[in-house]
Design a protein that fits this description.
Elements: H1 7-21, H2 23-26, H3 31-44, E1 54-59, H4 66-79, E2 84-88, H5 96-99, H6 108-112, H7 118-121, E3 123-124, E4 130-133, H8 142-146, H9 149-161, E5 164-168, H10 177-182, E6 187-193, H11 199-211, E7 216-222
Parallel strand pairs: 1-5, 1-6, 2-4, 2-5, 6-7
Antiparallel strand pairs: 3-4
Helix pairs in contact: 3-4
């Protein structure tokens, strides 16, 4: 006999997953949330002499937690009073519409292909000040779309309307998409899953970003365990 999950259990499961992905929203006083605020501060002061409005977040390989980092960074910037836009630039395996419980019928791919306007595609989230531009339908030619003049125009438009624009990009060693986007953004944050990703992969990712003339404003060590003498450690596991 198949038993259907009760509505109460479904809601609990949804809230549990939301809390895992958006801990900066569900538990603002946690150590993890404070770490994200520290990352926010480091990003803000990383380029004091230049305007930093578009930030690319990527990793060297899949599964290092870049998308969860993107979502939580967006939250802490919005909590600071910024008008924030998160763009799901992963036109191959998008995830941010799941994180923010938004629709993905119209998104980035539609806007670049001129099948929709930016205003039609951008969605408000349940977090004040935080907006999302989902990936939209997965196209057959992601790299070509991201390297187009339409993408350049889109970035210029959103820079005028938002204080901070954070773009979630595919892993650097998998496809060329992140390298293309890195060249278009003011700075790049590289996510490194400590103890999992190989050092050589990180080195290759760094070379790719350098070749794209991207400014690397920081590296986030994901799942890093601090020494015991520092009295606490990060047990939170970030998901892609």
């Amino acid at each position: 006999m198949i038993r259907l999950r009760s509505k109460k259990k479904k809601k609990q499961l949804m809230l549990s997953k939301l809390a895992r992905n958006l801990i900066t929203f569900s538990d603002t006083k946690s150590i993890i949330s404070e770490q994200f605020r520290t990352i926010r501060a480091n990003i803000t002061f990383s380029m004091p002499d230049q305007e930093l409005k578009t930030i690319l977040v990527t990793s060297s390989t899949p599964g290092e937690g870049k998308s969860t980092n993107v979502a939580n960074l967006g939250v802490v910037f919005a909590q600071e009073g910024k008008r924030v836009l998160i763009i799901d630039g992963d036109l191959r395996k998008p995830t941010l519409h799941h994180t923010f419980k938004t629709f993905n019928k119209v998104g980035l791919s539609n806007v670049i292909a001129k099948k929709a306007t930016i205003n039609e595609a951008i969605q408000e989230t349940f977090i004040f000040g935080l907006h999302v531009l989902t990936s939209g339908p997965i196209p057959p030619n992601p790299a070509e779309l991201l390297s187009s003049k339409s993408m350049d125009a889109l970035i210029l438009d959103v820079k005028r309307d938002f204080d901070i624009v954070i773009i979630d990009a595919p892993p650097l060693l998998s496809v060329s998409d992140a390298q293309i986007l890195a060249n278009k953004c003011d700075g790049t944050v590289l996510i490194v899953n400590t103890g999992v990703v190989e050092k050589e992969a990180v080195r290759k990712a760094n070379v790719i970003l350098s070749n794209s003339q991207s400014i690397i404003i920081g590296v986030v060590l994901n799942n890093y365990v601090t020494p015991k003498h520092q009295h606490y450690y990060n047990e939170y596991s970030f998901g892609e």
